[in-house]
Amino acid sequence: MTRLRSLFGTSTIAAIAIAFVVALVVPMVLGSGWVATLTSCALYTLPAAGVGLLYGELRLASLTQIAFVGLGGWIALRFGIGFGWPLPVLVVVSAAVTALFGAALALPALRLRDLYLALVTLLVAASADVAFNAAGFPNGGSGFLGYQAFGDLQRLRRPAIATTDDGYFRLTVAVLVAVLLGLVWIRRTSLGRSWALIAQSEGAAASSGIRVTRGKVVAFAIATGTSGIAGALMAANLGQLAPSTFHVSNSLLLFALVVIAGSRSPAGWVIAALLYRAVPYFLSERGLNGHLATMLFGLAVMHNLISAPAGLADQLAGVTAKLRTRRAVAP
Amino acid sequence: MTNTRGRGVRRAAALVLGAALVVASCGGDDDGDAADDTADTAAAATAAPTPTDAGDTADEGGGTATTAGGTAAGGDAVCGLGTGEAATGDPIKIGAVVGKTGPADFSSASLGAAAYFDCVNANGGINGRPIEYLVEDDGWDPEKAATVAKKLVEDEEVVGMVGSTSFVECAANAQYYADNGVAVIAGVGVPRECFFSSNIAPVNQGPRLSGIGAAEYAREQGAKKMACIANVIPNFGGWVCQGLEAWGEANGVEVTSFNGQPDGSDAETIVQQALAIEPDSITVVEAGPGVIGYLKVGEQQDADVNWYAPTSAYDVAFPAAVGDYWFGNLQAEIEFNMLDSTGPHNTLWQQVIDEFGDASAPRDSFSQGGFLSAMIAVDALLGLDPASIDRASVTEAFIGVDSFESDLVCGPWSFGEGEHHNANHAGRIVELAADGSWKLLKDCFEVPDPELADIVG
Amino acid sequence: MPDLGPFIVSGVAVGSVYGLAGLGVVMLYRTTAVVNFAAGSIGAVGALTAWELEQNGLADPLTWLAALVVSTAISTLYGVLIAGRLTDRDQAVKASATLGLTLLLMGFSYWRWSDTARTLRLPLDDHGFTMFGVRIIATKVFALGLAVAVAWITHAMLHRTDTGLAMRAMADDRSLSGVLGIDVRRHGALAWSMSGLVGGVTGLLLADLIRLDVATLTFLVVPATAAALIAQLRSLPLTVIGGIGLGVVESCGAAWKSVSDYRQIIPYAAVIVMLLWSHRSRTIPIVMRDGR
Q1: What are the pLDDT digits (tens) for A58-110?
Q2: What interhelical angle do C60-81 and C184-209 show, nearest 10?
Q3: Of B399, B416, B446, which residue constitutes the final position of a domain?
Q4: N or C: which end of chain C has fewer CB within 10 A?
Q5: Could you tell me if B436 and B362 lie in one domain?
Q6: Domain-by-domain residue ranges, chain C?
């Protein structure tokens, strides 16, 4: 326990405990609609973490993270339906291939200045959009693409240990916690610490012996790999995928939400995913017209970018810290 | 510093949640939107199950219509049992998933269905029990479609789904409906999965048949070489145009497919590409705005080609939008009867949508589809013992629907067992006449899709 | 080898539209250092307003004027109320904030105008000529001419007038410009108004040439951004040329069946490769990000 604490710190252990309770209790008290929505939130926390890692640590804006979720999903469907590979293998393969794509994108793109890089990632997202529509998602067809316009539709099945919605929610949260712990751990390694200096000044980093390009490429690979994991999990959850889920506007929106929520902390990534999926669901549950909800969302994006420069998570942390000091002062 | 932070949080929270709550608690929904306020209706149903409340079935937007149904009880339109008495019993929950927010608004069918259910509730309901119709928006996102289906099936415990219309729902939920024994009488099925799922049966023909129907008419007019234009969306464009290719092969017409971007931004290029093969006719299978986008380029090029459209063009707003160049020059295949036809069911549709429908509800063929799906569902429900209506009995009744006759469609409609459902497979041809109105050119004919072999036999 | 003539001609037509939309992006970037993802939706709201007024019987020129006023007003309001408060943030954050405006405008458009089939026609549509077997309507020629004219006028304004100098200075270093006595607020608002006006004109033309639909017009910002990137977000004439190049490459891709469905990727990939080539010499910033 002490060793665990020295590795992750008390707040992390508290977070794990909270995740455990959420995974256990949510399916007991909330209906299926909410369980499905929160499963989706857990999934989208992964690409949000990718955005957060790149932007929070390295100040690199990636506007293509959800396209990589689609790529991960495509790979999982291709191998899952085509060869019947089990989910754990699919998750690993999806993560590895998307990470490879991410690294291949990053290696040359890192020559570009920040804004150019962001816009290049936008073009990548737009290209992915075109490709998803043209290729379709694998549904049991033959050939490289595995897509068929005739014949029996096939879908990916959930693993035997989590066939129910509740079970799959718990599985997703478990994977999420594992990935987030991995990310938190990486941030504390020498690689992670080098990111901070690279973000401050590449010149200073390079002159103190840090391999700047390697640092950035690995960050990109990790960030896209987490998106790949989300894609595989989403594919197994739904059985089939469609291009509209991975539209370029969604990648843009996720970036904005991560900035709003706070790019540096896992809490911020979770909040971003909640804003992305849970808030719209809450609004439609309340009977709000979908178009008005979109407008409201747009207003909230603008408002929060102005009013919460450090992110909502940071502000919440500030508030809890303040409460804690108050309690400490009070007798 | 901490102070400003605290204020920031409050302001941020005020916007993200506060404003949401304020708008939501005001009821929002002033355009009669399909997304239902389930929380409110559920609360109303449990808190005050009074006679007047029981009539409050469909969406919030239909508030005025339901009041009229509850008090005036009927008016001209007679639906279901036709008693003229408002139903007061324990509500029967029926669901629908529609693609409302997104590239196009597909909520029209659910509005047509809602109007009919309101009318039924004002006329004795299902042997005294009113229908509570819960419509959810999938936002054209498969993940959301899966979520709202679970909400309807597991949280709301609907007994069946009626009037659903979506681009993504069938693919996302077909397996789920099959696993959970839910039957869906879809208002308008669009992509392929809506027609190839054990528990989903749409009342329309689908874009593939509508396109082939238009092409068949073109062939009768002498077409030998045809271009098929549809968007590239998987299980839509390819499926539709491959259908035309297969039909062409069987009928001696050379068909070449062209797939454009879903947003139509490359319509110009696609039309050039199609014209490059020098076809004598072009069939465009798209939603209404998409058809117009391609026709506009066609008008500019003014090539010597005949253009054909599917049912989506058959809309009252279409002629004015597409312009007089096309008056007398465009034929479309329609999946339901003419909007102004005088058969008993179409007349009833006109009456009910006026009396019970939302003011903003479109009067289009999607609405006819939703209305028909609701009629079929009510007919099936009325055959059940009102006390023992549950999901199992309703699913059995829906799947058991056999040869439902209606003037809204050409032939009898059946659900039936099996994986392939396309009971509506005969259509009509209309022409955009010289005066800018739609005229019937050719009455009911069978659409010769080779893929229908297992249904038509 | 297929006959590329018709594809080149239609590619130029589509490409000049990309170029025109790209101009709005570059103009604003050069004057305020903001990449505006909302440019398309601002134009769309203007065009939809024109359509609604036309349906209500207002004379065409008045509806066009109304469209320009609406687009300019939205853009100016955003510039003053939102962009003005984000000046010290990352460029990526400034760009994301315009996504907020995009969502607001898209939600509003669907809510107010739904997705009913509609078209916007400009009088020039009825005139035209034929080239390589492709008929070209006068609106397209007008769009191309306008793109060139706007590029030239803006270029002249930025480089030959004091206002232009002030704007360029502001985009480079806003706080320093303020210290030097430039009224950053007024010039910022002016830059947003100008870009709104161009957005309004583009919106009307694109609504006529492509489709009067808010989503379609909004996401034209992607090829527009690609055109802007070809010009390195700097040169206005290059933006127009780049846009035309994109249109031609994309359109010609349609001539080959095997790549046809994927052809929109070709111009994007080309832009990325081009950017990488032009940035092949790696520069490492020495200055600390927080200015130390």
Answers
A1: 888 889 999 999 999 999 999 998 888 999 999 999 999 999 999 988 876 67
A2: 140
A3: B399
A4: N
A5: no
A6: 5-278
In a domain, B413, yes or no: no
CA of C189 vs chain B CAs: smallest distance (Å): 26
Q: How many domains does chain B have?
A: 2
Let me know whether B129 and B193 are in one domain: yes
Q: pLDDT of A105-146, one tens digit each?
A: 887 667 777 788 889 999 999 999 999 988 889 988 777 888
Closest C-alpha among A138, A330, A117 to residue A231: A138
Cα-Cα-Cα-Cα torsion C57, C61, C66, C71, nearest 10 degrees, comes to: 130
Residues 42-71 of B with CB under 8 A from A: 60
Confidence class for position C211, pLDDT limits 50, 70, 90:
confident
Same domain, B196 and B279: no
Q: Which domain holds residue B295?
A: 207-334+427-456
Count of positions (residues) in chain B = 457
The nearest CA of chain B is from the CA of C271 a distance in Å of 19
**Residues C125 and B116: beta-carbon distance below 8 Å:** no
Claim to verify: residue B146 and residue B221 sit in the same structural domain: no
Residues B56 and B168 in one domain: yes
Q: What is the pLDDT of residue C288?
A: 53
Q: Which strand (E) or helix (H) includes residue A97? A: helix A87-109
CATH of C5-278, one of 1.20.1530, 2.60.40, 1.10.3470, 3.10.350: 1.10.3470
Task: Give which of A289, A306, A322, A323 to mutate to test B binding, by max B Cβ within 10 Å.
Answer: A289
As to burial, measured by CB atoms within 10 angstroms (0-12 exposed, 13-18 middle, 19+ buried), residue A116 is buried
Nearest-CA neighbor of B372 among B341, B426, B418, B413?
B413
DSSP label at residue B380: H
pTM of the model: 0.87
User: What is the CATH number for B266?
Assistant: 3.40.50.2300
- Under a CB-based contact definition with an 8 Å cutoff, are residues B397 and B383 in contact? yes
Chain C positions touching B277 (Cβ under 8 A) are none
Residue B419 lies in a domain: no
Are B88 and B190 members of one domain? yes
Smallest Cα distance from C148 to chain A, Å: 25
Q: Is residue B254 domain-shared with residue B153, that is, in the same domain?
A: no
pLDDT tens across A239-277, in order? Answer: 889 888 999 889 988 998 998 898 888 999 999 999 999
Q: How far apart are CA B262 and CA C215, in angstroms?
A: 11
B450 near A CB under 8 A? no
| Overall average pLDDT of the A186-210 stretch | 84
- At B68, the amino acid letter reads A
pLDDT tier, C2 (very low <50, low <70, confident <90, very high otherwise): low
* Average pLDDT over chain B, rounded to an integer: 81
